[in-house]
């Protein structure tokens, strides 16, 4: 049985795929035998995600291989043995960690070389200019006190979306089957089609916040103090309807041209890994190649902007509706808990 590795890229639908697999960790496939969603724990052990009645927004992924957190050679051997054992049992394990594509630690760990069966690598990518804008709002907008200047963000993060260069390193090192896919549709649907899976349900998780909400959070830094302070943004994404305002475009024309110039060679190299239909689609999609594709996206300031009374009022109304819905659900749960407690007390009295 093969081992399926989903390794990237970041901000390319990974959370949606991981959430779908965590909810349905034993998907049925006409192509693969006994698909099982697996993970590598922080103790460097391979485990299988178990089906659960809890259908909450789980997001199980494998532990990252970062410079400060690497397994020993013996631990890599144990992980490989676990995966080989699963394959011998007729199980096709799926591991997911979108950071692995850019992880030197994973690349050098030796894990893939120790897997005895076929390894299939899945990667989803998107045009780098759009990735930079999205990633800035995910991380850069909340760093450095008042956010990181977009030009500095490009300087420090352009290497993270050099998909072609990273895949070239993987090609040089590993003899694996690559499935490089363009993120031009629902990633869960696309994964299901590629693996001939039926019934894997998608959900709108980790979707970008409405542009008005992003500007509001910029003006109220106490609600999101850093790039890693995501409690409120996650709650908003789960419980409030997304507005109509697009994510603000903050990439100036000069930086657009620079990103495209720096990624062009790697993108041409990556096209060799695409199937013919997707290769043609990428070649014809000017967002990968031409600054003119972004001419209509007039850049806004990366710094916080004042908002109209109407914009804030709309946010307030949406928030109040969300509070009302959550309060109603909370009342129902409290009633259910009270009934359970009464039943439990009655059983103890018998």
Description:
This protein has 350 residues and is an alpha/beta fold. Helix content is 46%, strand content 11%. It has helices at residues 14-23, 73-88, 104-108, 111-114, 128-138, 150-157, 163-173, 187-195, 211-219, 231-239, 253-270, 276-284, 309-349; strands spanning 3-8, 28-29, 35-40, 46-48, 92-96, 119-125, 177-182, 197-198. The strands form 2 sheets. It has a 6-stranded mixed sheet, sandwiched between helices. It has a two-stranded antiparallel ribbon with strand order 2-8. The longest helix is centred in the C-terminal third of the chain and has 41 residues, at 309-349. The chain is globular and about 60 Å long. The N and C termini lie far apart (54 Å). The mean pLDDT is 90.
């Amino acid at each position: 049985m093969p081992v399926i590795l989903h390794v990237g890229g970041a901000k390319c639908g990974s959370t949606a795929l991981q959430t779908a697999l965590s909810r349905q960790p034993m998907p049925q496939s006409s192509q693969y035998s006994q698909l099982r969603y697996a993970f590598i724990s922080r103790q460097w052990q391979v485990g299988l995600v178990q089906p659960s009645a809890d259908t909450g927004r789980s997001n199980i992924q494998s532990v990252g291989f970062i410079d400060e957190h690497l397994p020993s050679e013996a631990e890599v051997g144990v992980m490989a043995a676990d995966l080989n054992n699963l394959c011998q049992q007729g199980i096709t394990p799926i591991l997911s960690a979108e950071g692995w594509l850019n992880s030197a630690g994973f690349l050098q760990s030796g894990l893939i070389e120790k897997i005895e069966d076929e390894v299939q690598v899945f990667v989803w990518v998107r045009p780098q200019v759009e990735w930079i804008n999205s990633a800035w709002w995910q991380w850069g907008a909340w760093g450095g006190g008042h956010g990181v200047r977009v030009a500095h963000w490009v300087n420090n993060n352009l290497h993270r979306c050099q998909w072609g260069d990273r895949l070239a390193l993987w090609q040089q090192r590993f003899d694996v089957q690559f499935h490089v896919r363009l993120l031009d549709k629902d990633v869960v649907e696309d994964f299901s089609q590629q693996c001939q899976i039926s019934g894997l349900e998608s959900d709108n998780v980790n979707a970008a916040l409405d542009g008005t909400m992003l500007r509001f959070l910029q003006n109220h830094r106490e609600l999101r103090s850093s790039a890693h302070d995501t409690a409120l943004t996650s709650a908003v994404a789960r419980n409030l309807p997304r507005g109509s305002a697009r994510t603000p475009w903050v990439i100036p024309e000069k930086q657009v041209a620079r990103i495209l110039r720096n990624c062009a060679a790697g993108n041409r190299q990556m096209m060799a890994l695409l199937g013919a239909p997707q290769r043609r689609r990428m070649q014809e999609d000017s967002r990968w190649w031409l600054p003119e594709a972004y001419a209509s996206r007039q850049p806004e300031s990366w710094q916080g902007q004042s908002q109209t009374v109407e914009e804030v009022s709309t946010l307030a109304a949406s928030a109040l509706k969300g509070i009302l819905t959550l309060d109603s659900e909370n009342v129902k749960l409290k009633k259910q808990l009270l009934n359970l407690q009464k039943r439990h007390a009655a059983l103890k009295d018998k």
